[in-house]
Specification:
The complex is a heterodimer of chains A (about 325) and B (about 350). Chain A has one domain (about 5-315): ABC transporter involved in vitamin B12 uptake, BtuC, CATH 1.10.3470. Helices cover about 75% and strands about 5% of the residues of chain A. Chain A has helices at about 10-30, 35-45, 45-60, 70-85, 90-115, 120-135, 145-155, 165-185, 185-195, 200-205, 210-235, 245-255, 270-285, 290-315, and strands at about 140-145, 155-160, 165, 235-240. In chain A, the strands form 2 sheets. Chain A has a two-stranded antiparallel sheet with strand order 1-4. In chain A, strands 2-3 form a two-stranded antiparallel sheet. Chain B is globular, with a radius of gyration of 21 Å. Mean pLDDT of chain B is about 80; it is low at about 1-15. The chains are: A mainly alpha (about 325), B mainly alpha (about 350). The interface between A and B is large, with 46 and 45 residues. Chain B: This is Simple sugar transport system permease protein.
Amino acid sequence: MKLIPKKWIPLLTTAAVFVFLFSAASMRFEGFASMYVVADLFSENAFLGITAIGMTLVILSGGIDLSVGSVIGFTSILVATLITDHQMSPVFVWSIALALGTVFGALMGALIHVYRLPAFLVTLGGLFLARGMAFYVKPEAVQIDHPVYDRLGDIAIPIGGGAELGIAPLIFLVLFMIALVVAHYTRFGRNVYAIGGDEESAVLMCLPVGRTKVCVYTINGFLSALAGITMTLYMDSGNPINATALELDAIAVVVIGGTLLTGGVGYIAGTMLGLLIYATIYQITFFASLRSSIATIAIGVLLLGFIVLQKMIHRD
Amino acid sequence: MTDHSVPSTTAEAIQPSEASNRISVIRLMGSRLVWPLVSLAVVLVFNAIFIPSFFAVEVRDGAFYGSLIDVLNRGSIGIILAMGMTLVIATGGVDLSVGSVMAISGAVAALILTETQLGMWAVLPCALLVAVLAGAMNGVLVAYLKIQPIIATLILMVSGRGIAKFITGEKIITIGDDSYNYFFDFIGKGHLFGLPFTVTIFLSLFVVTGLFVRMTSLGLFIESVGANETASRASGIADKWIKIAVYIFAAFCAVIAGLIDSSNINAADTMNAGVFTELDAIFAVVVGGTALTGGRFSLTGSLIGAVLLQTLMTTLYTYGVPSDVAPVPKAIVIVAVCLLQSQVFRTHVRRLFGKGAKR
């Protein structure tokens, strides 16, 4: 036990689970170990990955955000409606959507910090509000047909083996790199860890607790809006019911990635591994032509396993 | 405006800071029900003025029909879930899995009715088993592994819907003519004493639960565990068993709600059954004056909270607000209730009014 630092155990377990799942699936199914599948892992879950990065920061700071799925749905329908029905330029629409998401996140953060309201309840209100607003914008799916979307849809970076990464996974990977640096090499990142570890101590250390907490929710709001935009890029449409209950998947990915739900312990890289496990499980059910409900149950069991594991490790 | 009256009330009720107000605070604490009741009355008066048909009740085939009856009928699921949620929240916990447990119970019932000839005699014990298993899992995770309730019940919330879909084979199982069961049909659509049978279900659940927690010391134990777990254990209360029991009770309520829901639509729709109902139940409990931090609880308050929520929703639908957009006012009410319960917010408001007075 002494050889491996205790805090790395969840991360290493996650990595081991991923390697095991992927190699087992590769042996079992012909054609699983290909770059096509790897590209799929990223493409199909790019928006989940983007919002999971934000969720990691929120959970690291000791909070929780249940509103992300609804914000993604709201953004996707808002962007689609403004571009298709109101002929606005995509770049302008994206800035509106990102601004709205950011302000929304900041407002929730302010309510949570200034009025000491439970994050769970405030973001629950956010969940209802954003989902209702999404249906207010437009109650049905809207197709996007715009030259900018066509051009962005043509982007494809070859990653070898004939597989290519589209625009959505590229956005996710770039954000992942930025998040790695921000979380582990900046003052802000250290503050987030400190607050999640022990908020009172953080106050006593004169860290800007309020600013950091509000910032974390603001960033998460921004990332949710960005995930919604990425979703429109991937699907070429917007739908008010998009990403329903995605917040649960995002939390599951973060926890499977080894981040402690009480805050203060975890890694952005772990979230990447959690996302890969999540995506691999869905790929396996697809390859084995199993029902997707099996995948949901498997993720629930993994979630249980990791939460219990965390409890064992941090018992003292 | 209804929204505001709710919170201000709760807000005042929980304000312990000023000694001079102590007596009035105690009086308010004793009658926490006044505020949810007042807000319910405000909504009803509003409806009486602007939607006269709201209070119209007609008798057909010996049963009552009308908007008011409709509120009670549709609200029954929310009320039943709120009963279970009240006790869970009183122990300082929360149960997010009730919606998924609803879906499982509906799926199990539909499967038994369509695939076997066993009828209700098999449905009820199986539903009970679902409740015990689901509740015990939540309870053990919270009580023995000391996992935060939000997270512990999140596991079942995520996987429970998967389990329900697995049971039904990911399709909607319709309980058609060949699998028609009189008793099952009666649960969601029958009438007793001229009222929908669902009213009898929630009223008896409310009365039995109320009597059980108040006539025995169980209610006191639950409040004690919620107020101070360590002290409760030190004074000999089996805190772990109390917690497991309340989670099983919440799952039991969810199972009943699930049976009502699937009986209502004659099918098990695992995609939509009970989605977001956990949030409605939490909302009803908070509006009813039970604090999320645990401790003192009021079943009557939660009952009124749930009725208030359903009345609000029915009012909005009457005004032609699409059911998909209705979460917006719900969200505003939630945040307003939270704000008015917040100590900091009340201090801010008081300071604001104080300044106004000086000017």
